[in-house]
Design a protein that fits this description.
- The complex is a heterodimer.
- By secondary structure, chain A is an alpha+beta fold.
- Chain A has a single domain, classed as Jelly Rolls (Sandwich).
- Helices cover about 15% and strands about 30% of the residues of chain A.
- In chain A, strands 1, 2, 3, 4, 5, 6, 7, 8, 9, 10 and 11 form an 11-stranded antiparallel beta sheet that branches. Chain A has a two-stranded antiparallel ribbon with strand order 12-13.
- Chain B has a 7-stranded antiparallel beta sheet, covered by helices on one side.
- Chain B is of the alpha+beta class.
- Chain B has a single domain, classed as Alpha-D-Glucose-1,6-Bisphosphate, Chain A, domain 4, CATH 3.30.530.20.
- The longest helix of chain B is centred in the last third of the chain and has 25 residues.
- Classes of the chains: A alpha+beta, B alpha+beta.
- At the A-B interface, loops of A face helix 3 of B.
């Protein structure tokens, strides 16, 4: 049995549980001191270099991604996949994301029955990076965590994932402490979010963890939507 | 016809953005969705371009269209789509200096073929996203200059 007790500061996370569950129309919370400090320092110091990321240039975003987890049957990622280019702490954390303990604790925090980690990716942005406001609304039981690894982020500067409405016109919340902190929200029809255009020389380092309901019989707890392409 | 108006604030200087904006042949470097842009006429007052757009997320087919572009007497940039499913669409872009930044006003009168009209809300939203993306990438290019 691996030792996972020194990774995530669950007391801090549970302290935000009521705030998260009472938010409407979208449940979200911002959690500071997400990791225990020692473990965070090791992750921070070994965060992968941006040169190992893939640059994504789409109309809605300019960003860097580095994915982890080969997808098998039903799009389930391999929970034991080792990334030998990364530190032991990152590999330990990756395994922990798929453990019963992690899943139970997230359920305890969110009161949402998510039972599998669906997606893990390193995210980075540099000057010129952005993500336009968007809504996924893929299903009733999807949680998105964005965990930040940036020291001394200036107050008021873009880079954190904001929650908004009216296509980004009204920003409801935008985080500025991006050092060992986490934005978590439940996906849904009003879960609009994005990242403002980054206008200074910097890197905005983060990871994204997506959790969802899953069963072997029915797969992921997502809505069945057939997207028909149109011909003009 | 349907109006689409929005504005974006960019860090780059107005003059640099205006110079970059009319560099039409560079547009494919901004986004994969712009497959090609070819200048087929340039008489010094008016430029006509032929462009191929690929929106593979939404559309089965590529859009090939020609557009005419000119700068009006009031300094606004005027474009009109001459053929294809958005034939007749007019776009007016204005760059304004505002607190050492540049405000870009986009005013679009979107016209769609009968076949495309049913998808008006989707296309309108996609156009806004597409143009916003192009302007952000122009800004990134401008501040490197």
């Amino acid at each position: 049995m691996e030792e996972f007790s020194n990774i995530i500061n669950w007391d801090k996370i549970y302290s935000k549980s009521e705030e998260f569950t009472n938010k409407t129309p979208t449940k979200f919370a911002f959690i500071e001191n997400f990791f225990f400090e020692d473990f965070y320092r090791k992750l921070y110091e070994t965060f992968p270099d941006i040169s190992t990321f893939t640059k994504i240039e789409e109309p809605d975003k300019s960003a860097f991604r580095r994915w982890w987890g080969s997808k098998g049957k039903n799009g389930v990622i391999d929970p034991n996949e080792i990334d030998s280019e990364l530190s032991p702490e990152w590999n330990l954390f990756y395994r922990y994301l798929h453990s019963e303990n992690f899943i139970q604790n997230i359920q305890k925090f969110s009161k949402i029955i998510v039972n599998k980690t669906k997606h893990f990716a390193f995210l980075n942005m540099e000057k010129g990076g952005y993500q336009l406001p968007h809504i996924h609304d893929v299903g009733p039981r999807t949680l998105v965590f964005l965990v930040y690894f940036n020291k001394n982020w200036p107050d008021g500067k873009p880079g954190g994932t904001y929650m908004s409405k009216n296509e980004g016109k009204d920003i409801i919340f935008e985080p500025y402490n991006l050092d060992n902190s986490c934005m978590v929200f439940q996906d849904g029809p009003y879960a609009e979010h994005g990242v403002r255009y980054i206008d200074r020389d910097t890197e905005r380092k983060a990871i994204q963890i997506t959790m969802e309901g899953f069963s072997e019989e029915e797969g992921w707890s997502i809505y069945e939507r057939k997207i028909e392409k149109i011909e003009l | 016809m349907s109006r689409l108006n929005f504005e974006i604030i960019l860090d780059a200087k107005k003059a640099v953005l205006e110079e970059i904006f009319v560099d039409y042949e560079y547009y494919p470097n901004y986004l994969n969705q712009i497959e090609s842009v070819e200048i087929i006429k340039n008489d010094g007052k008016e430029i006509v371009t032929k462009q191929v757009l690929v929106f593979s997320t939404y559309l089965k087919n590529k859009i090939t269209q020609t557009s005419t572009h000119r700068i009006n007497n009031d300094g606004k940039f005027f474009s009109k789509i001459l053929d294809g499913p958005a034939k007749g669409t007019e776009i007016v872009i204005e760059f304004l200096t505002e607190n050492s930044k540049t405000k870009v006003n986009v005013d679009m009168d979107l016209t769609l073929s009968l076949k495309a009209k049913i998808f008006f809300p989707i296309i309108k939203k996609a156009y806004k996203q597409f143009l916003t993306g192009v302007f952000y990438k122009m800004n990134s290019r401008a501040i490197q200059k």
